[in-house]
Amino acid sequence: MRKKRICLLFGGCSSEREISISSANAVYEALDKDKYEILRYDARDDLQKFINDIFAKEFDLVFPLLHGPFGEDGKLQGMLDMLDMPYIFSKTLASALAMDKHKSKLIARNANLEIVPDIVLRQNDNYNIKEIVDILSLPIVIKPNEMGSSIGMTIVQKSGKLAEGIEKGFKYDTTIILEKFIKGRELTVAIFGNNPPKAFPVVEIIPRISKWFDYKAKYEVGGSDEICPAKIPDKICKKVKTLSIEIFKAIGCKDLARVDFIWDTERDKLYFLEINTIPGMTKISLVPKAAKAAGMEFGKFLDELIKCAMEV
């Protein structure tokens, strides 16, 4: 029986390049070499060869591990659809909608999820610091609209630092989101499969080396405690899983996505933050930990993910 030929596409040119390479290395190590022939392409250096090999039918399935712009935002998915090349993870429109934090929040609100109050600014918009503070109150979270891994993100404590945070956000995107800061417990849920999609155990994230879940806390060993299953009431656990499946379906995701929430314990409210359609797959990433808590070692989880993609 011929081995399935899997193409790992990684690297690229986004600010999340190094994380993408780490994800690809971890996936390569975990894939069963008796089942799969694995070809590897760096989207920055090997793109022409990758496209030529699609036409030459050198592989059966693309496993995209490109985080951020040009990998996770629908552009790659649209190209693969045009070339009739099967791939893992969400299709073109769902990828684009999920990557756009503002649009995904609008979809979440329409699906009856609570969203954090925000203001959207586009480059060259005029804005008034006092009005922003009056509407959102301090602290304020500033995020590039289409960037992951907390890159370009700032939590502003004083109005005098707001312009600086806005300027930083615009270095990474032409649209930024300013959100009311919600104090609470950060929860994340991986949604896996298609018919029907199921929720993995809830993970609670507790940053250790930073005040919030920034780039360092995400990717440095020991940067955060990631408790899985989260030690939360059953009512909250069930609700966050249900809401995660709702937004997964509302956006039109497939195969796998990770949904992030903040649980305001004082008001007992769950706020949707964002959804990630190509979650990190490094050795310390959240999804492999959640899969393990669900009873799937990483290699077995990857087998099931590949099976999902090839069935749809």
What do these coordinates show?
The chain has helices at residues 17-30, 47-55, 75-82, 92-99, 101-110, 129-136, 162-170, 215-219, 234-251, 286-293, 298-311, and strands at 4-10, 36-42, 61-64, 114-115, 118-122, 140-144, 154-156, 175-180, 185-192, 198-199, 203-207, 224-227, 256-264, 269-276. It is an alpha+beta fold. The chain has three domains: 4-89, Rossmann fold (3-Layer(aba) Sandwich); 97-114 and 183-311, ATP-grasp fold, B domain (D-amino Acid Aminotransferase, Chain A, domain 1, 2-Layer Sandwich); 118-180, Dna Ligase, domain 1 (2-Layer Sandwich), CATH 3.30.1490. Strands 4, 9, 10, 11, 12, 13 and 14 form a seven-stranded mixed beta sheet that branches. A four-stranded antiparallel beta sheet has the order 5-8-6-7. It is globular, with a radius of gyration of 19 Å. The model has no long low-confidence stretch (mean pLDDT 91).
Radius of gyration: 19 Å
CATH topology of the largest domain: D-amino Acid Aminotransferase, Chain A, domain 1
Number of helices: 11
Order of helices and strands: EHEHEHHHEEHEEHEEEEHEHEEHH
* Overall form: globular
Low-confidence stretches: none
State which percent range the strand residues make up: 15-25%
Query: What count of domains describes the coordinates?
Result: 3
Structural class: alpha+beta
What's the N-to-C terminus distance? 22 Å
Helix content: 25-40%
- What composes the largest sheet? 7 strands, mixed
**Total number of β-strand segments?**
14
What is the correct CATH architecture of the largest domain? 2-Layer Sandwich
Q: Give the integer mean of the pLDDT values.
A: 91
What's the CATH C level of the largest domain?
Answer: Alpha Beta
Q: What name goes with the CATH superfamily of the largest domain? A: ATP-grasp fold, B domain
